[in-house]
Design brief:
- The chain is α+β, with helices and mostly antiparallel strands and 126 residues long.
- It contains three helices and four strands; from the N terminus they run αααββββ.
- The protein has a four-stranded antiparallel sheet.
- A hairpin with a 3-residue loop joins strand 1 and strand 2 (75-85).
- The longest helix has 16 residues, at 44-59.
- It starts with a helix and ends in an 8-residue tail after the last strand.
């Protein structure tokens, strides 16, 4: 085996960035046509990670937690809690709940802010 072949194989085995690693995890198969898909739905824990990672990319703020995740016909829906405005004392900091919609492969399709509240506020909804 030539030295050039080793370098080429090593490059193939090691993704060039963290983002490309995330996008390939959990993907089985490929799209061969517009009508036939062989991709599997990602697991709930992976969907939660993908939701927080992609929402952080868009908002520029680190999500604090995922308060809900559920499967949908087309993928996943997650509610993600984000610190929007930090205040002192921390119980007066402004938080927001974002509803994130992911496709079966864990790619973000849509998001919206559904609720804004102070950290110390109790949820009075039943």
């Amino acid at each position: 085996m030539a030295a050039g072949e080793e370098d080429e194989n090593q490059h193939v085995r090691r993704p060039s960035s963290k983002q490309s690693t995330r996008k390939t995890i959990g993907r089985t198969g490929s799209r061969t046509s517009a009508t036939k898909r062989t991709a599997r739905r990602v697991s709930a824990p992976r969907a939660m990670r993908y939701a927080t990672e992609q929402l952080q990319e868009l908002l520029g703020r680190a999500p604090e937690s995922v308060s809900a995740v559920k499967p949908t016909e087309d993928g996943w829906q997650a509610d993600v809690e984000v610190l929007e405005l930090e205040r002192v004392p921390t119980t007066t900091s402004v938080m927001a709940t974002y509803r994130v919609t992911l496709d079966e492969e864990g790619e973000l399709v849509a998001y919206e802010r559904t609720h804004r509240y102070t950290r110390g506020q109790m949820d009075r909804r039943s």
